[in-house]
Prior knowledge:
Number of strands: 7
InterPro entries: NTP_transf_6 (IPR009267)
Organism: Silvimonas amylolytica
Helix content: 25-40%
Protein name: Nitrate reductase
Strand order of the largest sheet: 3-2-1-4-5
Pfam family, one: NTP_transf_6
Number of domains: 1
Amino acid sequence: MVSLKQPNESLEARLRGMVHADAELLALLACVRNLGLNDWCIAAGAVRNRVWQRLHGQTSLLPASDVDVCYFDASMAPDHARAVHNALAAAMPQVRWDVVNQAWSHHFNGLSAVHSLQQGLASWPETATAVGVWQDDAGEVRIVAPLGLEDLFGLRLRRNPAFADESVFRQRVAHKQWQRHWPLLVLLA
């Protein structure tokens, strides 16, 4: 079982500030919020890459390969994520959406079943990737960071210790070439 970290309020405030300053991310959040999902976030590279770019002083964002939308709803059938994807694609067809209901993710990722959105994100390969943002009904930005924000803001690329397969982590580091894009990243084994 993964132990979930307590939030670091100053890092959360920094992340909220970055999100509020990012019109594109705010538009993506509003699009997902309009679907009325329970327990959702935009996560992974859509958040991580933006933070790393800003911490590197990069003003033009690398194009996102996709926008990861995660939600948790065990009451929905496994194919419900396809309907969510289709609704998002209809609303913003220029975006490559990747939608996963974490309640069913164990069927394709080979990991144990999870019982919450936070637990799903806490099972991801890198600590800095396990960060999501969402908007409540009032439009307030909220943060999901079950492994904390310290590695994300500390520019530390670290394997999640709860993620057993180190080879997957190493393959992701080599394939994604994060250190080429963000040379201040420190790879921690």
